[in-house]
Amino acid sequence: xxxxxIGPPGAGKGTQAKYLVKKLNNFQISTGDMLREEIQxxxxxxxxxxxxxxxxxxxxxxxxxxxxxxxxxxxxKKGRLIFDGYPRSLTQAKNLExxxxxxxxxxxxxxxLNVNKETIIKRINQRKIIEKRADDDLETIIKRYETYMDTTxxxxxxxxxxxxxxxxDGGSKIEExxxxxxxxxxx
Length: 187
Ligand code: AMP
Description:
Elements (H helix, E strand, L loop, with lengths): L2 E4 L6 H12 L2 E4 H10 L3 H11 L6 H12 L8 E4 L5 H13 L6 E6 L2 H15 L6 H23 L4 E5 L4 H12 L2
Parallel strand pairs: 1-3, 1-4, 2-3, 4-5
Helix pairs in contact: 2-3, 4-5, 6-7
């Protein structure tokens, strides 16, 4: 089963993705984690993206699409993908469509965790204490939220007509979101 989790930073995509990885024995495909790993490894990609990531800007579609392609071409992950933070732009969504066709796969569920700005600010301020991420300061949080909402709106329009698109109140408690997801999955 392949799933997509869409939602602004702090919506709880990562938390739900980790839950689903265990439940379904799937793989979490988090572009944010992949990009942070590139920075940690001080790779060529890592050097290119460092400033944009720290400023809360999007990394170029080209870089992100390359990372995603590698994950989709991995045979052990076929049909077991949980996308967390991808696609975030219409170009990425169209790229994903092409890769799915190429690898003979489909997306079974798309979950949009919808959360307002105030809740995001509160949550990320808490996460900052625990995870110490460089892009979790207040100004950057607001920037990341606004960038996300602007760039991802066309992605929502692209998917929202699909019968497997579900909007969930991402402002609810973690367990409530999980229960909602479970009820849609019906597994
Ligand atoms: P996340 O961990 O998903 O909140 O992502 C952290 C940061 O990584 C974002 O603010 C972007 O700078 C970058 N990033 C993650 N996923 C993408 C993506 N699909 N497209 C562009 N930039 C991304």
